[in-house]
Amino acid sequence: MIPIPILIIDDHPLVAGGIAMMLRDVTWLQVACACTNAADALNFLNDNTVDIILLDISLPDTDGLTLCAQIRRMHKAVKIIGLTSINEAGIISQFLAHGGNGYLLKDMGREELLEAIDAVMDNKVFLSKGANQKLLEQFCSTGDALKNAPVLTRREKEILLLLHEGLNGPQIAEKLFLSSYTIETHRKNLMQKLNVSSTQLLLKKAKECRMI
Amino acid sequence: MIPIPILIIDDHPLVAGGIAMMLRDVTWLQVACACTNAADALNFLNDNTVDIILLDISLPDTDGLTLCAQIRRMHKAVKIIGLTSINEAGIISQFLAHGGNGYLLKDMGREELLEAIDAVMDNKVFLSKGANQKLLEQFCSTGDALKNAPVLTRREKEILLLLHEGLNGPQIAEKLFLSSYTIETHRKNLMQKLNVSSTQLLLKKAKECRMI
DNA sequence: ACATAACTACCTGCTTTCAGGTATTTTTTA
DNA sequence: TAAAAAATACCTGAAAGCAGGTAGTTATGT
Question: Which of the given ranges, A95-104, B80-89, B180-189, has the highest pLDDT on average?
Fold first, then answer.
């Protein structure tokens, strides 16, 4: 049985060494190469195929996110697992948005590394427990956040959703069989309730208050 | 040791019965009550305190999401776990946004229920494996999505981010020490690249393409 | 039945956006 | 070094948005 080839991209050789050590008993995985910079990695990938890439997102010569997107564009099927000390929701979501399939923190153990590899090979997204928690926390609202959000009327909610869909005033008026003046009044009331002075800020604030 | 009181809100008594059966050996948990509708649940909560609520989001008299937000406003510390057959990213994220702490699918087993209760009692967000996967999938981009996104110049990216922050043309011009005409040209070019005809649609499309 | 809230519509004046271009300068690439 | 790309700036005209209100009708709540 041919072992699954893995590429490690990390500017610290000790990291690659540590991972190789973790995987030395795993007969179905093989570290095909370890690169310490983006250029070497891209060169390697030009002539070689791997199934999995462990990618440090803090590289010296290239932004790891950009490299991730670059690799993803060229190799649609390769699984890319981010490797980092950064446990921030913004970076995690950006990494996935740039084509990543998984995200591990550098304090991971062997078990978690293998679990991640299993999951992405099974076409699943894998985040380490800490990263997963960080990402999920973004979705949550506290009682205070919900309490402070102003109450919108039925029509205001409707207008807000249509604005969020990208319709402008006249288009909303046409869709709801109302006057443009009416839409403008609702919009004005919405802007007053959320204490903003433009439609863009209205939508931004509404998102923050979880109204859309 | 006082067992943790749980409230079950589900319009099917069989569900509450099944959960009670799952938890019958768990001495540190106690089903305090099972309600079949929102009104009964709110009445119960007026006179009683529970630590955990298992909430079916498809209730007959009230939208489960609205009920969740309502309970959250009144009881900041209670842990609310959604209970549903719906495994859709939109509903999951809305449930969390309305104050939920966890989300279980109705095909869950006893182990997963206990794991969820442990996690939320530990102030963590818990999603069942299936729900978690559904939510994470939203963050990911394929090679095609990345390939098809138009390439933006340095200034275009900068303008886009500032528009996303809610600034209008003149404000961006002032911030970047450029002419308003220049900003409008960049905006026009952005709109052309993303094939839209308003700033709102530009921001919407940019989000879909993971540019912001 | 009355008061209140929500919804509807209107209007002026000003600002901003959008669409349609043109054109010069600077930076980058080959 | 020259070509190409990016950045900058300009301009008109029309449409939309925003701020400032006023005001009548309908639905809801007490």
Answer: B180-189
